[in-house]
Amino acid sequence: MFNEAGKVAAVRHHWTFDEGYSTVTVQGLDANGDGRTSEEELKQLAETNVSALGESGYFTVLKANGVKQAMDVPRNAGMSFENGRLTLRFEVLLKSPAAGKLLGLEVYDPTFFVDFQTAAAADAVRLDGAPAGCSLTVSRPKPVPTEANKSLSESFFQNLSASSSFGASFASRTVVACP
Fold this sequence. Notes:
Blueprint: E1 8-16, H1 19-26, H2 39-52, E2 60-64, E3 67-68, E4 71-82, E5 85-98, E6 102-107, E7 135-139, H3 146-149, H4 154-158, E8 173-177
Antiparallel strand pairs: 1-5, 2-3, 2-6, 4-5, 6-8, 7-8
């Protein structure tokens, strides 16, 4: 998300969770018993989830001209439950809006505990308020062959930490080029 000055000011996220996690998470949240879990019934859960993501930097790495940008407090946390799947929405503000001819965005868990995947749709990543002439390219990681996964032991994953870079190997990358 760009501000009026043409600088990146925030990253808007829409994370849709798998059906298993979604089903377990909404259990007991239909407070009015109408058979559907509304956004209002999910509001507190959304705020709690987004607040907890601060420890991990919101799994968001944004670089402007190669310099990692510091993230500030999120806003507009919300959640919806449709077609058996939860979607968490929020915006992460940058501490200082960033200018740059080349921007890079990655969303990933360094420990690979959470598997983030950018949707396959052509408009899965969009520029909001970008200066004229800016363009974006999304590159998605290649699938890892099943036999490659067998060589990684449980201890390997137990030793990963927030400072690890293993999860970055599986991150989609968005590159924004502006004139």
